[in-house]
Amino acid sequence: MSDRPSCRIAAVQMVSGPDVDANLAEADRLIGEAAAAGARLVVLPEYFPLITPDETAKVRIRERDSDGPIQAFMKDAARRHKVWLVGGSCPLEADVPDKVRNTTMVFDDTGRRVARYDKVHLFGFVRGGERYDESATIEPGSDVVTFDGPCGTVGLSICYDLRFPELFRAMGEVDLIVLPAAFTYTTGRAHWEVLLRARAIENQCYVLASAQGGVHPGGRRTWGDSLIIDPWGEIVARLPEGPGVVVADLDPARIAEVRASLPALKHRKIS
């Protein structure tokens, strides 16, 4: 069994709109709520600074790496609230002029950036009048990213990455997988929970999914259901819809217990 102490983690759920300043103010309020509940690591949802029917809007607010108001907000919020902050996703400049990288950045509790992950898998979906094509405005990343923090080793992913288990296997043995997301209502209702629980079970680690959840200005509806799941696949905290925070304790002893009783990670034959 592990002798590391438990570590409180939090998922922030939002219903972001087209006003960046208003979204940042709401994110700051919710980060503060998570910190007041004792969270040491807080995860914002995908697209927390901006959701709008105009898919080119994120290109107009894209920032250079390490320079811009959204990144400055995350750095400052982590420092002020004294938490490790996983910044959902922020649009950064891409190699292609009219596209962005959909990027998660991690800041420690002093405001120092410790990790960057660019979303690898780009969502595309068509059903009736519902249509999404992230590749029209986003350039994919290619790197698997983990970092070490107060809650152990953490693997980074974003939304549609959830459907590609090979990404999570490539992370190695991690204590926690985080997945900021803006799942559609249609796909979320069908697959969200079962896929998240599968990732926790097969990697024998905690999974934290921080979601957009509700009806956004412009009419888009996201699934929500922010979840924290333990290594046995048990849901330990959830928020079905609307803005708010869910918290739970990541217990290293629980990870060790699951891996000792069912050593599936050691039984792997194909890598």
From TrEMBL:
Keywords: Hydrolase. Residues 7-252 form the CN hydrolase domain. PROSITE patterns: CN_HYDROLASE, UPF0012. It holds the Pfam family CN_hydrolase. InterPro entries: C-N_Hydrolase (IPR003010), C-N_Hydrolase_sf (IPR036526), Nit1/2_C-N_Hydrolase (IPR045254), UPF0012_CS (IPR001110). Coiled coil: none annotated. It comes from the Bacteria. One of its GO terms (molecular function) is hydrolase activity. Belongs to the carbon-nitrogen hydrolase superfamily. NIT1/NIT2 family. This is Hydrolase.
